[in-house]
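I hope you will forgive my troubling you with a question about protein structure. Could you please explain, in whatever detail you think fit, how the structure tokens follow from the sequence? Thank you for your consideration; the sequence and its tokens are set out here.
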Amino acid sequence: MLILLLALAAQTISTRMPHAQALPPPTDDEQAVLISAQALLNSFETWNPAEILRWVYPDGRVTGTGTLPNRTGVHSESWTQFTKRAGSGFQERISDPAIEIDGDAAMVWAPFVVRIGGKVYNCGIDHFDMVRENGIWKTMNLTFSSRITGCPTQ
């Protein structure tokens, strides 16, 4: 009898977690938001100011916090100012984006890694503040944290 009670108790206090549920596929709106954010990041590679400005509101802001190889602290500039910097282009990739939408306002929150010449330059979290106008999602503001250590190498 004692063995039966112990077996039942062990089964009751099992430490097994329930099976994970797959995330639902992104909605059409979520995909549209992500496509716009990704198009902006892709435009950084060619550093074509007209292409960058196509995906943003020019008077919006790019704000970085944290550490870059040449800067520490908070730095903010308009998209127009951002595109006037001499740029040879860089590759920025996001992963595991979280997307929230309410009407014509959306946000994307995602870890990122920037590479220049194939080498990791910095990493952190991107926060895209997006607005839909005439059916097109554009980034109003991009705020990001930044660090130069502890970045993924893959």
In short: The helical segments are 2-12, 28-46, 49-54, 79-84. The mean pLDDT is 88. The CA atoms of residues 21 and 59 lie 41 Å apart.
